[in-house]
Design the sequence.
């Protein structure tokens, strides 16, 4: 059929053909050629709608120029759709057209019904750690992961992000402090997740908060309201902020390798600045503008003194009246030996509590192996010498050998409780040696090691262990005294060993001769 016939003209011709009119009458009535009518009557001409559907392209022209497989791959990697549009299609079509064509080709975008929550200025703040971690490479070439802390003010939706090495309590509180300083104030309520750094025991109405977190909240005068476990909608804003920040970060720095935590924090600061200064689709202004105009004045002021990091521990007082804290040792009153105490660890001091009563206060030591003592915490040495633990060690040493008992008694006379751990180590190491070699072979080695310790006055468990190993190695190299080599008469190439227990000497000589001659 010729081009140019409309849908209405085509349908009129079909209607008159169905009414039984001739080709001549239809051509005279509709002012058209009889050839067209004959083609329509015979079925040689297609309906114009079918022709348009057959010849029309699948979409606009710009859709044929775009690599949709690449778009689909970027979406599977978790990148934001709008960022893909900005990079690939923003110069040739609008975002709405791109979204419509993508939804037609790949029905990935699902419409969800949401209920918006309303907040008052300066009232709520939500915090959480991002599930995704950022990899970085240190100077030794090891691959490490940085944990990203996200915070958001619920009214203006101003976003904060900070990366740290781990999620320990110190980094958790430090991230909060940096967030409040970034906001320039403190909100009335801080909503957190039920992680151990914030909540010790979850409860719907009365959860048990971490003591360090409680003191931090009291210092900044904010109320901690944990979200319910397995209820992410209780902190939906920060969940959305985590997704937005990490998507944009992954997209911008997808080809970048980080070498330090500081570099990651600088990159995160650029990402949140870009998000906070962008026009919000619902507010019609940026987050930072909404914050400065409506919310900043309603926040509580920051405290005059910065918060000092506090860590709470629950060690047990050792029988030597010392508490092990951060690889150092601090004395506690001897009446609390064997009991659990609470230790408040700050940057400058160590406080030891028992049943809410502070029983010791020490300056904090840096490094490893330092001891901080208060002499009033220890009993008199004569009284400590008669206690059960030192006497038990002496009893065990006596069953090993008398020289071991004399050595430990000498150490106890100098400082009983100060040498208690050393005595325990010496006795245990000697027991292990007897158990492995037997008392007959192990006893000379132990005596030799003790004599060498006394000779050089080095009373250390590590030195005792090294000496035992050297003596053991030396004794295995030297030949045995009861195995003297003796040449047989008649043939100097034949030999036998003396001192063989059991059996006849003649039989032994004969068997050795047979082995040598092969007979």
Sequence:
């Amino acid at each position: 059929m010729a081009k140019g016939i409309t849908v209405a003209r085509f349908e009129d011709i079909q209607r008159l053909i169905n009414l039984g009119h001739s080709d001549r009458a239809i051509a005279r009535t509709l002012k058209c050629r009889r050839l067209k009518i004959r083609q329509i009557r015979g079925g040689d001409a297609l309906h114009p709608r079918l022709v348009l559907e057959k010849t029309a392209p699948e979409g606009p022209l710009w859709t044929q120029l775009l690599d949709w497989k690449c778009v689909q791959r970027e979406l599977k990697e978790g990148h934001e759709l709008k960022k893909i549009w900005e990079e690939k299609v923003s110069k040739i079509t609008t975002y709405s057209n791109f979204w419509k064509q993508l939804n037609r080709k790949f029905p990935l975008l699902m419409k969800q019904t949401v209920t918006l929550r309303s907040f008052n200025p300066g009232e709520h703040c939500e915090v959480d750690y991002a599930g995704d971690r950022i990899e970085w490479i240190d100077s030794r070439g090891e691959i490490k992961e940085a944990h990203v802390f996200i915070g958001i003010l619920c009214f203006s939706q101003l976003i904060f992000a900070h990366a740290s090495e781990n999620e320990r309590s110190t980094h958790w509180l430090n991230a909060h402090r940096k967030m409040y300083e970034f906001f320039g104030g403190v909100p009335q309520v801080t909503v957190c997740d039920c992680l151990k750094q914030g909540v010790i025991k979850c409860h719907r109405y009365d959860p048990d908060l971490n003591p360090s977190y409680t003191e931090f909240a009291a210092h900044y005068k904010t109320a901690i309201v944990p979200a319910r476990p397995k209820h992410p909608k209780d902190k939906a804003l920060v969940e959305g902020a985590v997704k937005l920040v990490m998507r944009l970060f992954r997209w911008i720095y997808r080809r970048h390798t980080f070498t330090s935590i500081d570099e990651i924090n600088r990159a995160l600061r650029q990402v949140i600045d870009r998000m906070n200064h962008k026009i919000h689709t619902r507010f019609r202004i940026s987050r930072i503008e909404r914050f400065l105009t409506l919310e900043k004045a309603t926040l509580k002021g920051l405290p005059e003194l910065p918060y000092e990091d506090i860590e709470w521990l629950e060690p047990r007082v050792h029988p030597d009246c010392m508490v092990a804290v951060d690889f150092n040792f601090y004395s506690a009153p001897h009446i609390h030996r064997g009991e659990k105490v609470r230790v408040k660890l700050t940057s400058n001091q160590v406080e030891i509590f028992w049943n809410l009563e502070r029983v010791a206060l020490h300056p904090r030591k840096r490094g490893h192996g330092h001891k901080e003592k208060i002499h009033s915490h220890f009993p008199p040495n004569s009284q400590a010498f008669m206690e059960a633990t030192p006497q038990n060690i002496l009893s065990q040493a006596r069953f090993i050998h008398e020289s071991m008992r004399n050595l430990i008694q000498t150490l106890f006379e100098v400082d009983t409780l100060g040498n208690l751990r050393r005595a325990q180590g010496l006795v245990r190491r000697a027991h292990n040696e007897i158990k492995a070699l037997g008392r007959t072979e192990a006893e000379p080695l132990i005596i030799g090691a003790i004599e060498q310790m006394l000779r050089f006055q080095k009373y250390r468990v590590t030195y005792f262990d090294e000496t035992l190993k050297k003596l053991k190695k030396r004794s295995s190299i030297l030949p045995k005294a009861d195995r003297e080599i003796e040449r047989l008469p008649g043939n100097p190439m034949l030999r036998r060993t003396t001192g063989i227990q059991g059996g006849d000497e003649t039989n032994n000589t004969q068997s050795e001769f047979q082995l040598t001659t092969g007979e």
